[in-house]
Design brief:
It is a multi-pass membrane protein. The chain is mostly helical and 410 residues long. It has 16 helices and 2 strands. Strands 1-2 form a two-stranded antiparallel ribbon.
């Protein structure tokens, strides 16, 4: 009788045991790679593996360096510009002396601008509830500060995005920015003055929570088809974007942030744009819109309070650093990671709003109506978006191929 000795590494049981031991490590590695290191999408990429940087043969050392290190330069150049003018101004006017009294907002914006640059939320989505709910600052001052600080943080983040060449939806940038410019001016002049402090606080957290619900709805659609740009763009889609921008501008007029919510929702739910593309596009829109609002409040109304100016001067260098940092890191992570951050932030915000503001029965009903109505609106958008998918050329070809295969089998 001959006995065959099988080495452990080749034995089925041994292999199974070894595989079992390796699975937890592999699964953890896959988890981190998928949700935190997914990779970026660039406007000049030929495929999903990444951009193909073409360096001319006659390029000098500076051009080669710029092409090979555009990610690093995209992060550093806006920061260097912002910090240069800030340090010159701070030294001349002794801004450092304000920090013992105005440190709250620099600390807040270290987190707020990072989240604003990483997600579709602007930094104002963090600054406004912190100032109004926790610090009990007048909502008008909080709104002005949100516009001002995003003019640094989100503009720096936008510069990083543009320099890096990250893929964007340019139809939305052009038409939403047009509508948002009119919306924020009309909102500042004719909407904001007629809202109470409690209404501004609670409407803000309610609208953002309904957006979080819409994002959750979006992510329940498994293996949905997404695009890098709006398909079959035409006149009615341009009008939708203008109206979307206008609504976002009005929301920004009393809360300092809003066009990002409207743009992201329309792009993802109605036009099936990839969430990462919609997020980066929203950052460009925020930067455009807050600059308009900042200019209007500072140069036309001339009513920005001294407190808002002091908070802004102290928080500007922080936002200029963390905004591009969030944008840079956010372009790598998975869309589900960004979505989970939004769920958490908006849940905390609306719970905190009800605890701190303690709204009356009328305002509570209004907030509930906003959340329920907003969710219903976003649900309808998602259904229309699914219907639109069937009209796109690639989906039509897929359906035709499926029908032909069925016919051949029959």
């Amino acid at each position: 009788m001959t006995t065959t000795v099988v080495p452990l590494e080749y034995a089925p049981n041994g292999a199974s045991a070894r595989k079992t031991k390796m699975e937890p490590k592999k699964s953890i590695a896959r988890f981190f790679k998928k949700y935190l290191f997914e990779g970026q999408r660039f406007h000049d990429e030929g495929n999903e593996d990444g951009p193909k940087v073409v360096i001319p043969e006659d390029a000098d050392w500076m051009e080669r360096f710029a092409l090979n290190h555009r990610k690093l330069l995209g992060f550093c150049l806006p920061l260097m510009f912002m910090w240069t003018w800030w340090w010159i101004y701070a030294i001349k006017h002794n801004i450092l002396a304000l920090y013992p009294y105005r440190y709250a907002m620099p600390v807040t914006m270290a987190f707020g601008s990072f989240i604003g640059g990483m997600t579709c939320e602007g930094g104002g989505a963090i600054a406004f509830p912190v100032m109004t709910l926790i610090l009990q600052i007048n909502p008008t001052i909080a709104r002005d500060f949100a516009l001002m600080i995003q003019s640094c943080g989100m503009t720096a983040a936008a510069a990083t995005i543009l320099y890096m060449g990250v893929a964007l939806e340019w139809h939305s940038i052009v038409f939403c920015s047009l509508g948002a410019a009119f919306g924020i001016v009309i909102g500042i002049e004719f909407v904001d003055p007629y809202m109470s402090k409690a209404q501004k606080k609670m409407f803000f957290v309610s609208i953002w929570f309904s957006f979080a619900c819409a994002l959750f709805l979006l992510n329940t659609q498994k293996k949905r088809k997404t695009y890098l740009r709006i398909q079959m763009f035409n006149w009615w889609k341009a009008i939708v974007l203008v109206v979307t921008g206008f609504a976002g501008g009005v929301l920004t007029s009393f809360s300092g942030s809003g066009v990002c919510v409207c743009s992201f929702s329309i792009l993802t739910l109605l036009f099936s744009i990839n969430e990462k593309i919609a997020t980066q596009t929203s950052i460009i829109l925020i930067a455009n819109n807050v600059l308009v609002g900042f200019f209007w409040r500072a140069k036309i109304n001339e009513t920005i309070s001294q407190l808002a100016w002091e908070y802004w001067l102290c928080a500007a260098p922080v936002a200029a650093l963390t905004g591009p940092m969030g944008s840079f890191l956010g372009s790598f992570v998975h869309r589900q990671t960004l979505a989970c951050a939004v769920y958490l932030l908006e849940t905390v915000a609306i719970i905190g709003g009800f605890i701190i503001v303690k709204p009356g029965i009328g305002l509570t009903i209004a907030c509930a109506a906003i959340v329920i109505g907003g969710f219903g609106f976003f649900y309808c958008l998602s259904k229309i978006g699914i219907a639109l998918l069937r009209t796109y050329p690639d989906e039509k070809q897929k359906n035709i191929a499926g029908l032909n295969a069925e016919a051949i089998q029959a």
